Amino acid sequence: MASAPAWPRGRRGWSAQWDRGWDRVRNLTTSSPARFAVLVFLALILLFTALYSLPAASADGTRTPFADALFTAVSTICVTGLATVDMYSHWSPLGHVFTYIGVNVGALGVLTLASILGLVISKRLGLRAKLIAAGDSNPLRVHGGPVNEGQTVRLGEVGQLLLTVALSTLAIEAGLAVLLYPALIMAGIDPLVALWEAPYYAAMAFTNTGFVPNANGLAPFADDYFLLTVLMAGVFLGSIGFPVIFSLWKHYWHVRRWSLHTKLTLITTTILFVVGAGVILLLEYNNPKTFGSLDAWDTTFQAFFVSAMTRSGGFSVVDIGDLNGSTLVVGSMLMFVGGGSASTAGGIKVTTLAVLALAVWSEAKGRSSVEAFGRRIPSDVQRVALSVVAWGATIVALSTVTIGQITQAPIEEVLFDVISGFATVGLSTGLTADLPDPAVYVLAATMFMGRVGTVTLAAAVAATSRTQLYSLPVERPIVG
User: Fold this and answer.
1) Which of 47, 221, 253, 266 sits at a 20 to 30 Å CA gap from 16?
2) Contact present, 152 and 258 (Cβ < 8 Å)
3) What are phi and psi of 213, to 5 degrees?
């Protein structure tokens, strides 16, 4: 009997190698979803860098320099909003489409996106993937301790959370576009152009990115309070986080049934929004370059708008470079905090700040445990909150020193743009557009670490969690 032809064996060999490779990817999604999430974001950044490098993506038909293409890809996927090129004039219509698609993909979030892809690959979410996905929906995030029964989203609700993410993104952006479309037409925008600008603005507001589809940005709409209010509403909905949207959708206005995470997010967000606006108003009301020429109502509204945008929105009516130095410091503080966990906003998250504030208050009152709204916050959550702040501050400090040394620019401007990148805000004093390539790469890495999340990044590089079956003797060092 004649032997079988060689090509089927070769094909079977390639098939076996493909199956083994697919099995490795499938095992990665269930064994280390945090590491898989980082790889997913890196792959997306490389893909969009290649897309932005296409001559067809630029308005003049030439290839965009690698540093600019990479930075734009990172800023888009990480929904930051910073840019080293003029986003309106540099890119062609195809390039703007890449940006629109990229921010919506990035808005899904690191672990949510990884969970969705893992579900597609493995046809199911493994237990560890469910734990990680659930962890991204509450202040526990990724940690080595147990997942509490009272977490925001339980394991059986992970699928509902993923569905809520997709549906809420589509529904909210569509609703914002419907509201923005007549406002753009009334502002003198051509109806056909407004068909593109309305969904573009809606996506940039909800994803907290802040890119604009026109040459002058929001300057032509400085007096259009309806349009600016819709943008603020979109930024707010994007910054509170998908778990909060999930909780509000599930329980409507039954406040008592809201999770502790939902309550802390909404209360802290509101306090920072109001207090931030008040401080900005006091610091800028007599600045002739910003609010000095406005009346009381305009000044108050613009102060609230700046406060909302420093939380991660990225839109700007006034020139950020014209703000007083003290206002830049306040804006840096607001940006560093950012928005809610598992949201399109960046920063250390408002729940992190709330947990640390409650811990300090409990220590001042001499209480042995940290409590809020009839619930006790376990010590592992407090340790994670402290770790997030420490790692975030370290990343910002290293990036600020490095870029400051490279550019020799005023340190308050460097700090503002670095925190804007880390917290994925997108506001700039004008420094980012003039950065040399080495500083561009440093700021791009800062944006990536800020979006992926310090805890997620730590979990991704950690080899394995170890269980210690013994306890060392206690000794108390002097603190403070």
Assistant:
1) 47
2) no
3) -95, 10
* DSSP summary character for residue 56: G
SS3 call for 75: helix
d(CA 281, CA 279): 5
| Contact indicator for 352, 251 with CB cutoff of 8 Å | no
Q: Token pair of 360, please?
A: 């300090």
CB 72 within 8 A of CB 83: yes
Residue type, 149: E
Q: What is the identity of the amino acid at 249?
A: W
Question: In angstroms, how far is CA 309 from the centroid of its own chain?
Answer: 13
Angle between helices 437-452 and 379-407 (to 10 degrees): 170
- Rounded to two decimals, the pTM is 0.84
Lookup: tokens for 427: 């506001």
Q: What is the pLDDT of residues 420-464, one digit of tens each?
A: 999 989 999 989 999 999 999 999 999 999 888 765 665 555 544
**What are the CA-CA distances from residue 103 to residues 86, 188, 201, 474 (Å)?**
17, 27, 12, 49
Q: Which two tokens stand for residue 341?
A: 């966990």
d(CA 82, CA 399): 15
DSSP line for 284-332: HTT-TTTTTTS-HHHHHHHHHHHHHIIIII---SS-GGGS-HHHHHHHH
| Beta-bridge partner residues of 58 | 91
Domain coordinates in residue numbering, the chain: 21-27+30-457
Q: What's the CA gap between 265 and 182, in Å, rounded? A: 32
Question: Considering just the CA atoms, what is the radius of gyration of the chain in Å?
Answer: 23
Partner residues linked to 377 by β-bridges: 370
Bridging pattern class, strands 370-372 and 375-377: antiparallel
Residue 326 has, within 13 A of its CA and on its CB side, a CA count of 9
Per-residue pLDDT tens for 149-188?
334 344 455 566 566 677 778 889 999 999 999 999 998 8
Residue 109, both tokens = 């979030």
What DSSP character marks residue 108?
A: T
Tell me which residue of 76, 124, 66, 129 sits closest to 104, measured CA to CA. Answer: 76
Backbone dihedral angles phi then psi of residue 58, each to the nearest 5 degrees = -100, 155
β partners of residue 371: 376
Q: How far is CA 294 from CA 164, 216, 275, 300, in A?
A: 42, 20, 21, 9
The owner of tokens 């916050």 is: 377
Query: Could you give the CA distance from residue 145 to residue 371 in angstroms, rounded to a whole number?
Result: 19
Query: Measuring CA to CA, which residue among 209, 275, 284 is closest to residue 239?
Result: 209
Q: Is residue 427 within 8 Å of residue 420, measured between CB atoms?
A: yes
d(CA 160, CA 115): 12
With beta carbons less than 8 A apart as the criterion, state whether 149 and 205 touch.
no
Cα gap 268→244, rounded to integer Å: 13
